Amino acid sequence: MGANDVSMIKAAHIGVGISGQEGMQAMLNSDFAFSQFCYLQRLLLVHGRWSYNRMCKFLSYFFYKNFVFTLVHFWYAFFNGFSAQAVYDTWFITCYNLIYTSLPVLGLSLFEQDVNETWSLHFPELYIPGQHNLYFNKKEFVKCLIHGIYSSFVLFFVPMGTIYNSERSDGKDISDIQTFCLIVQTSLIWMVTVQIALKTTYWTMISHFFIWGSLGFYFCILFFLYSDGLCLMFPSIFQFLGVARNTMNQSQIWLSLILSVILCVIPAFGYQFLQPLVWPVNVDKVFDRINHCKTRPPQVRVRTKLKHPSLRRSAYAFSHKQGFGALITSGKTTKTKPNKKNSFPVKK
Amino acid sequence: MNWGGGGRKLMPDNSAMKQQKLPAHQLHFSARVVLTIFFATGVFCFCMGVILILSAQSIQEIEVCPILLYLFFWYWGLNPGGDVYMYYKLYGFYQNHYRYVLSRSNNQLVGKDIMVRDVEDCAPFKVSQNKTPIAPCGAIANSMFNDTIILSYTLKSSVHIQVPMLKTELTWWTDKYVKFQNPSLINLSDRFVGTEKPPYWQAPIYELDTSDPGNNGFLNDDFIVWMRTAAFPTFKKLYRRLYRVQYFMDGLPAGNYSFNISYNFPVTRIKGEKSVVLSTLTWSGGSSLFLGLAYTVTGAFLWLASFALMAIHMTMKKKKLSYRR
Question: Which of residues 182-201 of B touch A (CB under 8 A)?
């Protein structure tokens, strides 16, 4: 498109430039540029839709994991004299968002696909949630918040109940604050890992590596930070000497962890199963049809690109100003074509 | 104007990663898988809960609240076989308060920096009134539990024997042998020259147990147990273990017992309470029923939920099929 369209591209939310005969300015100023108008279909229906999906999953997961992480302190305040004592080791607080949970969510937002490109093109109705802002709005945010509050409640009270009046199997101390911190931290990491594993529908090798690798990395760093060598070198900075070793060999700790994860994840899992059954939206019906088709032998006819020069219309310019779009797409501005004579000779 | 050769560089590579065509598995939970997961998890949780409850019920525990009584007689009707552990339990003592938890010097406790030169967290228990450093510094050490509890068994009508108790191996191995170290193994009192005892203590740190150098100074078991701050305001800490000799080979026999307690630790000032607990143990720890009950309830709930979900799924499937027709 021409140089006079540059301001329109810049003003739009997403500017698309088509490179062609009229110069490079439009293309250079656009967010996306390609060479043919028909590629717009893929941009919208495949990549745009995937991008919206990924963004919404990323946002709701990110808010959720930080709600759980932070709200545990709200419950603990009632038990520590409201003195703002943290429920986690300070090093865990530093590493949580940066190291332990950053890669899985990055993998989710780069690679996630709910349906593959063939189905995306075949069912344009799947684009509707993006237009109506269905996947992340105030209601979804509130759902995320409620799930976070409930998870933080479980994450605090299950470990508390486990160690409250308890000892180790050899009679020694288990209800100290460092053990409690360790249990809550580990339960939290497991919980958010399982949650993102459930949210990820498209499992590449990279997703496996990011998700399970982050979990394993957490344990490696845990044993490193709580090791004798490091804690003896800097006793006032690394204070959790021996906590991991002394706690991880107690069965009640692992049982408490398993229970916390089950209690947090199962409601979300059940809701994910129930919602398309009992309160389906239009998109769920499409997914249903897709799953139905997948179980049958593939008979999908993908629309092939037919290029009839006679059907090609002149280029559209979609204006960013309200009002003209409806006029242009109504078709009233295009010339009506006279009826073509049948070009094939008829045998008489 | 055409692109020419330079335009090719703008195109992304045709690799699987950049074209979003990585080999992958599309995860989709069918109804059968979801219901199986619910059912199996329910069964697992229920069984686990029953096992934990049975294990917790097998513990025998007795709690005695000797408030302002120096001597307390009671009849132990049960006969707990095996190891018996004696704990002191405190109510309303906030060892998890933010400022309290900070108030220690790990450098000092590991034997490196007895004079506590660069730690401000111990204030106001860092230096005494005449500016000598306190060893061990901090509020945690200062508030150490200092009651003495002696358990006696009535052998015959007027013969009371003291139940033999062990005062070592009460702590985590890593605490005793790595985290807490004395500045030297011999002549402990010389190494602590230039320091003072904390204000609330009766004896200095190197006189906590003069009979056993492995239990003296920073290595004293009672001290280490106290320094492992509790997570909640109600907690119990291991005080002594039964020494299974003579009459107590199989634990505490049935009979009359009494406590002789020197009441030093002031709980009434902080509106708290204290008590003594005698308890046996099991593989799952203490006598708390919480985990067992939580598992049982979760298991039962999941099991019921799996049936409910199955019912909903069948109803919806029938409806869908009837619509399709």
Answer: none
| Paired residues of B72 in beta bridges | B259
CB contact under 8 A, A180 and B38: no
d(CA A33, CA A29): 9
Would you tell me which residues 274-303 of chain B have a C-beta closer than 8 angstroms to some C-beta of chain A?
Answer: 279, 281-288, 290-291, 294-295, 298, 302
Residues of chain A contacting B295 with CB distance shorter than 8 Å? 255, 259
| pLDDT averaged over every residue in chain A | 86
Residues of B in contact with A84 (CB under 8 A): 98
- Name the closest residue on chain A to residue B313, using Cα atoms: A277
Location of structure tokens 């069965």: A251
pTM given for the model: 0.87
> Distance between CA A273 and CA A251 in Å, rounded?
32
Q: Give the span between the Cα atoms of B322 and B325, in whole angstroms.
A: 5
Which residue bears the tokens 């389906």? A280
pLDDT in tens, A277-328: 888 888 888 888 888 887 776 555 666 665 555 555 565 565 566 666 677 6
Do the chains contact at B283 and A291, CB–CB below 8 Å? no
Q: Hey, what long-range contacts does B154-161 have (CB within 8 A, 24 or more apart)?
A: B154/B255, B154/B256, B154/B257, B154/B258, B155/B247, B155/B255, B160/B258, B161/B247
Q: Look at strands B85-91 and B273-279 and give their pairing.
A: antiparallel
Beta bridge mates, B24: A204
User: CA A244 to CA A183: how far, in whole Å?
Assistant: 9
Element at B24 (helix H, strand E) = strand B24-26
Look at residue B305 and tell me whether its pLDDT is greater than 80: yes
The pLDDT of residue A80: 92
Interchain contact, A172 vs B101, CB within 8 Å: no
Q: Which of A161, A173, A232 sits opposite B294 (nearest CB)?
A: A161
Chain A interface disruption, residue of B20, B99, B229, B306, most A CBs within 10 A? B20
Q: In the 8-state DSSP scheme, what is residue B219?
A: G
What does the pLDDT average to over B191-213? 88
The most confident of A10-24, A217-231, B12-26, B52-66, by mean pLDDT: A217-231
